[in-house]
Structure formats: structure tokens, C-alpha cells
Amino acid sequence: MLKLLGRDQQLVLPFGLTKYMVLQVVAALLVLLVFRGLAKRVTHGQPAKGVWWNFWEMLAAYVRDEVVRPSIGIPHDDHGHGDGHGEGHHHHAEHSDISHAVEVGHPADKYLPYVWSVFFFVLFCNLLGAIPLLGSPTANINVTGALAFVTFLHVAYYGSERSGFGGFLKSLVPHMDLPAPIAIVLLPMIWVIEAGGLLIKHGVLAIRLFANIMAGHTVLGVFLSFIAAEEIVANGALWGLVMPASILAQVAIGMLELFVAFLQAYVFALLTSLFISAAVNPH
Question: What are the domain boundaries of the chain?
Fold first, then answer.
């Protein structure tokens, strides 16, 4: 059974396509269909009606209000830190910006399209694994690696857009008051460490999603193999006991898998928001 499972994961389709490539397209189309339908229902300011549409609207609002806005906050700059008058003016302007944000939207909403896209894409990829004979594209390290790489590109883009490319690279090193001879030696070393840390964080983003989704599928495969193994090894003597126990275990793990599918999409979106926040709010 495990051999068949492993062979199925390596299934190669015509034109060099693989199963995971097709499933990613399916996940993207499902996201498009769901949110095109939702967008049509709220275009004129009317609330969406129906449990199905309310569910997706609730998830989108939760990601916006509990993930993106609190994590990214209101991007700040370093202007107006001169004398007391300048500081007061800066605080007054910031207060005005906050009031304006409450009326027409939050400044962090600028980054919502990408975070929403990655959250729902990862979620649908995870949920496809609950359908027999399909599988989760996010159980493939190449898929999660590509997602993490695209996230890294967005983080670098948003940081460069906010501070300039040079400013983004400079912001990787925290401000320190050091004598010039020490700064010349120490700061480049710190920059290399911080830049490496930025790459490692995005690498971990890929590995944690892959590991969590893959682990659930592996456990399900092991429980399913118990049925065949018992029939072969014990000549079916305990098959009547092992079979229902394995099925019940699969149902329980399957329910846990549904929870993990939502949880891992949430974690990916949260970490993405935190990385964007660090890029647009340099220390």
C-alpha cells in the first residue's frame, strides 16, 4: 500500500505535467470561482446571503482583521523626528492618518491581495488532500518552496517600495551607535548574518508547511496499511478487529487533517504578514 501511495505521488502525466501541477491549477480555479461569485454578491454594497457565501466572507474578514491589520499595523517612516515641533506635527499627522484609515480603510489593506491569495490558495491545496486519490500539492516540498520564494519576492518588493532598494538592504542591520573603525568591520558581518536569516526564515516557511501536511498523509497511509498487513501476516485471524480500528483511526486523523488544513493556511498567512511588516516597518 505504501509503495502504491509513493508511486501515485510520482505520477507523471503527458506533456511533462505531474499530478501536483494539475492539482495546483484546480486549487487556483476553485479560489477564482468562489471569490468571483462572492465579489459579484457584494459589488453593490449588499451583504452576501447564504451559509456558503457567508463562510468565505467570514474567512476573508478574519484574515484581514485578525492577521494582516494587527501584524503589519500602520507603516511608519522616519520623518519628523527633529525638534519638538516637528515631532508634534508628526504625531498630529499620524493621528489624522489613523482617523482617515478608520473611515476609508486600513493602510495595511494594501498588502491584503497577496496575503488573501496565498491563504486561500494554500487552504484549497490542503483541502484537496481530503479527497481520496487526489492529494495535497502542499505535501510536495517543491510547491511549498515556490510559495515561500514568491513570498520572499513580495517581501523584498514591498520593502524596496517603502524604503528604496538600498534602504531595504540597509534596514536589515539594526541601528547601532558604533565607532567608525568598529562599524566598518562589524556592520558587514551583521548584514550577512541578517540577510542569511531572512533567507532561512523563508526556507523554514516552506519546510514547516510541507512537513505538517506530509505528516498527516503519512499517518493515514500507515493506518490504512494495517488492514492489508494483518490479513497477510496473521492470515486474517485479527482482521475483524484491526479493520474497524484502522477505519476509526483514519476517520479521526481525517478530521484532524481538516483542522490542520485551515491551521497551516492561517500560519502561512500570519508569517507572511509578519515578514511584510518587518520589511515595511524597519527598525
Answer: 2-280
